[in-house]
Amino acid sequence: MIAASRIGVCTWIFGAMPLQKMAADLARMGFGGVELRADYEKDSPAEINEIFGDWGLAIFSLTPMDVDLSHPEAKRRHSAIAAYDRLLDFAAALEDEPYVCIHGRVGRIRAQQSAEEESELLVESVSQIAEMAATRRLRLVFEVLNRYESHQVVNCSQALQLLADVGALNLGILLDAYHMNIEESDPVAAIHEAGAALWLYHCADSNRRGLGFGHTDWRAQLAALAEMGYRGPLILECTAVGPDPFTPIKSGDWRGQLCEDLRLSLQRLTASE
């Protein structure tokens, strides 16, 4: 059985809902925490600590901004690294010392010039961010996406190679059941392959709805996590039915459907063996 205190929800899936209401709704549903999409332009760490702390919710991790760490233009890469520098400052001021998620620009599905060059640039940028995170005693997790969202690091093997190339002790892997459904021939084997490098796990079904609404064998994935001794958070990142995977906003009462999916997913996770 998985304790509800280990189960969180990505805040971006609610769209522009006020954080106070979001925290209240998630706490009432029984969740233990969140992966926060932080807006460091308008949110203050003190306010975030108060909002989620008042409702007993941990901040497990931070969703990054959508910036390009491997673009051939140095100006764009430097801007992306500067954005992560600000996010790391924000993370360091939070009471829970959350993981800071990192990934390439979502939606850029091909290299601008050379895939080999951009792989080297990604390693260079991630290495620099890992150094900045280490000075703040923060840990990073590189999220493995899919080919329809990124042209880089779309499976566990590639993520492990990135970790080896970067060589930073404060960098781990974030595997996502939805992305693995697309890219991994055997998601369970991918979880075992990640091993101790797997620091964070996102869950949603094959259609990115809540658990039990698609064909993903999420019970087998949970069993694999238990077998390898994973004790980190489980973060739900599901969306309501509808087109456009890059926005949570769908037609009709999409938030109502989303909340029902979240309730059922929490129930299924806490009841699983």
Detailed description of the structure:
With 273 residues, the protein is an alpha/beta fold. It has one domain: Divalent-metal-dependent TIM barrel enzymes (TIM Barrel, Alpha-Beta Barrel), CATH 3.20.20.150. 42% of the residues lie in helices and 14% in strands. It is built from 9 helices and 8 strands. An 8-stranded parallel beta barrel has the order 1-2-3-4-5-6-7-8, surrounded by 5 helices. α3 runs parallel beside α4 (115-135). The protein is globular and about 45 Å long. The mean pLDDT is 96.
Mean pLDDT: 96
Q: Which architecture per CATH?
A: Alpha-Beta Barrel
CATH top-level class: Alpha Beta
Number of strands: 8
Cα Rg: 18 Å
- Principal-axes geometry comes out as globular
What oligomeric state is this?
A: single chain
What is the helix content? 40-55%
Write a concise synopsis of the structure shown:
The chain is of the alpha/beta class and 273 residues long. It is built from nine helices and eight strands. Helix 3 (74-92) packs parallel to helix 4 (115-135) and helix 7 (187-194) packs parallel to helix 8 (218-227).
